[in-house]
Amino acid sequence: MTQPSEFVRETIRNIKGYSFEDPILDENSIRGTLGLDSLDVADLVYEIEYEYNIDIKDVEMDSVKTVGDFIKLIETKC
After folding, report:
1. Which helix (H) or strand (E) holds 2?
2. Residue 28 to residue 57: CA distance in whole angstroms
3. pLDDT category, 77, cuts 50, 70, 90?
4. Which of 24, 42, 46, 49 is 20–30 Å from 55 (CA)?
5. What is the pLDDT of residue 1?
6. Of 22, 26, 37, 55, catalytic
7. What stretches of the chain show up as alpha helix (H) in DSSP?
8. The whole model's pTM is what?
């Protein structure tokens, strides 16, 4: 199983087509800085749930604004 920080970054790169040279930082906004739309976020959540065998509730997503927020959410559920 991949470390949450690397998994989230790699999945965002795959979804958005970013190269590995493009830095994705913990403080990057999911919707603002990285430009993920609702479908992209749903894809990201699905990939996270599948990789870590966890369930992320919609209410939990209300507090997820940055890459770091996603990482913390995964770490609290694993």
Report:
1. none
2. 22
3. very high
4. 24
5. 73
6. 37
7. 4-16, 38-52, 58-61, 67-77
8. 0.91
Single-letter amino acid code for the residue at 77: K
**Cα separation of 24 and 73, whole Å?**
17
Backbone angles phi, psi at 66, to 5 degrees: -125, 170
**pLDDT tens per residue across span 6-50:** 999 999 999 999 888 889 999 999 999 999 999 999 999 999 999
* Angle (CA) 54 30 52, round 5°: 15
* 43-53 residue pLDDT tens: 999 999 999 99
Residue identified by tokens 């770490």 is 75
Residues with Cβ within 8 Å of residue 58, at least 6 apart in sequence: none
Length in residues, the chain: 78
Q: Which of 19, 23, 10, 58 is nearest to 38 (CA)?
A: 58
Residue indicated by tokens 């604004």: 65
Read off the tokens for 68.
Answer: 């770091």
